[in-house]
Amino acid sequence: TRLVLATRNAGKITELHAILADAGLDLELVGADAFPEIPDVKETGVTFAENALLKAHALAQATGLPAVADDSGLCVDVLNGAPGIFSARWSGTHGDDRANLNLLLAQLSDIADEHRGAHFACAAALALPDGTERVVEGRLEGTLRHTPTGTNGFGYDPILQPAGHEVTCAELTPQQKNAISHRGKAFRALVPVVKELLG
Ligand code: ITT
């Protein structure tokens, strides 16, 4: 069976290939880039789960293949959960990871260490062409650094220090990050659902 990965975010694609390969799924993963004619869906949902389902349904409908999607972001305690679903466009330019991170750091410059709690959240959705849908979520709790450290990963990884660790997500190896990450947790929870529905 072919399964479409409904994302164009290169950082996510790398991680999803590793996470799903480790799960031993007997599926051929097809990137959304294989369907350049399909326009990106508007992310009009107000939750990670709603947006993940929107993306998965759009690709499943347009391709006639089962599709999985990821909607994710960084939720900062002192900002009442922002940037949240707006994480990819926090600075105004969609997908400018460096600008997004720098704006957030500037907004938090006066916030002391004990108030810098945050978490990554990920909703992993599966949609079938017949409209069947499932969605599960995962989180990674941590604290935000004052300066970026590390070059692995993507997005806000250089400033999120996972609870119980002394380094940022961008200093973890890909394997170490996937083992504890919001995305790893969400997609590992989705695997039995994929197996059940796609055999
Ligand atoms: P697709 O919709 O094509 O999947 P996107 O980048 O628009 O790609 P989102 O709307 O879900 O995806 O935005 C996710 C943003 O949240 C991403 O741009 C990062 O800034 C941040 N993010 C999500 N997961 C992250 C992770 O594991 N490490 C660091 N930042 C992450």
Automatic annotation (TrEMBL):
> Which Enzyme Commission number(s) are on file for it?
3.6.1.66
Q: Where does Mg(2+) bind?
A: 71
For this protein, the record's CDD domains field holds:
HAM1
Q: Report the InterPro entries cross-referenced here.
A: dITP/XTP_pyrophosphatase, ITPase-like_fam, RdgB/HAM1
Name residues in a coiled coil. none
Cofactor(s) listed: Mg(2+)
Report the domain of life of the source organism: Bacteria
HAMAP family documented for this protein: Non_canon_purine_NTPase (MF_01405)
**PANTHER family, A to Z:** INOSINE TRIPHOSPHATE PYROPHOSPHATASE (PTHR11067:SF9), INOSINE TRIPHOSPHATE PYROPHOSPHATASE/HAM1 PROTEIN (PTHR11067)
Task: Please give the subunit comment from the record.
Answer: Homodimer.
Functional summary from the UniProt entry: Pyrophosphatase that catalyzes the hydrolysis of nucleoside triphosphates to their monophosphate derivatives, with a high preference for the non-canonical purine nucleotides XTP (xanthosine triphosphate), dITP (deoxyinosine triphosphate) and ITP. Seems to function as a house-cleaning enzyme that removes non-canonical purine nucleotides from the nucleotide pool, thus preventing their incorporation into DNA/RNA and avoiding chromosomal lesions.
The UniProt entry's sequence similarity note says:
Belongs to the HAM1 NTPase family.
Protein name, entry field: dITP/XTP pyrophosphatase
Task: Please spell out the taxonomic lineage of the organism that makes this protein.
Answer: Bacteria, Bacillati, Actinomycetota, Actinomycetes, Kitasatosporales
